[in-house]
Design a protein that fits this description.
Layout (H helix, E strand, L loop, with lengths): L4 H17 L2 H19 L12 H24 L4 H6 L2 H5 L5 H31 L5 H31 L3 H30 L4 H6 L5 H10 L3 H7 L12 H27 L1
Helix pairs in contact: 1-6, 2-3, 2-6, 3-7, 3-8, 3-10, 6-7, 6-12, 7-8, 7-10, 7-12, 10-12
Length: 275
Amino acid sequence: MMIALTPLTTIAAKEFRDRIRNRWVVAVAILFALFALVIAWFGAAQQGSVGFRGIGPTIASLTSLVIYLLPLIALILGFDSIVGERERGSLDLLASMPLTWFELVLGKYLGLALALTVATIAGFGVAAIAMLPSLDANAAFHYGGFVLSALLLGYAFLSLAFLISVYATDRARAGALAIALWFILVLAFDLLLLGAMVMVGDRAGAPLILAMLLNPADVFRILNIFSSDELTAFYGLATVLPGWLTHPGVLGGVMLGWIVLPLALATHRFRQHHG
């Protein structure tokens, strides 16, 4: 299928400008910067120490923050991307433009993904500049990898938000589904998986460990834990997870699947109903 770049970039630019105009990007960037700086300098305040503790503990704390915050932001950003246009009656207007339904969905996704990218990089970039005197080349490399993995996590949940938006019949249902999905994947999934591991013991350990790949938040967590030998030893997962499961290439491929597959399903569903 040939994709016309001009309509695609027009839709993407409109979505991005809308987020800039309503100061969404600025608000999220400030939020990420503040949290990252507070965690980097005051994360060990309960132990009576203040200051940068090293890149390992900082990434561990930031990983926990991103798992809770970034999926919610991405879901809120995209849950009404399609159903909202339908409710406002602007979907028919967009349909009258010289573009395909695929270009419409992809253009809106790229625009929102760009807004999420700018906000994330700006926020964590400010924190990186503040930490720069304490970072060596290796620490800077790990921090850059953490930011990249955070972006992949955001893109994955943005794809899931588009899938919700295509299937939902109205904005209220889409919002409820988005919150429910965040609760299931971010809060409930690991508790259920841990409970299942305790119940079955060693009998079904491998399948349950592989089930972690069914949750992009867990893929993100594993990717960052195994970026550092210090964090791997701290979490005690080196003897639990098979070596191939912790390879960055495998985990990155799984995360890309979480980005592409929901968006492809959303596009297919959208084309079925409007094509």
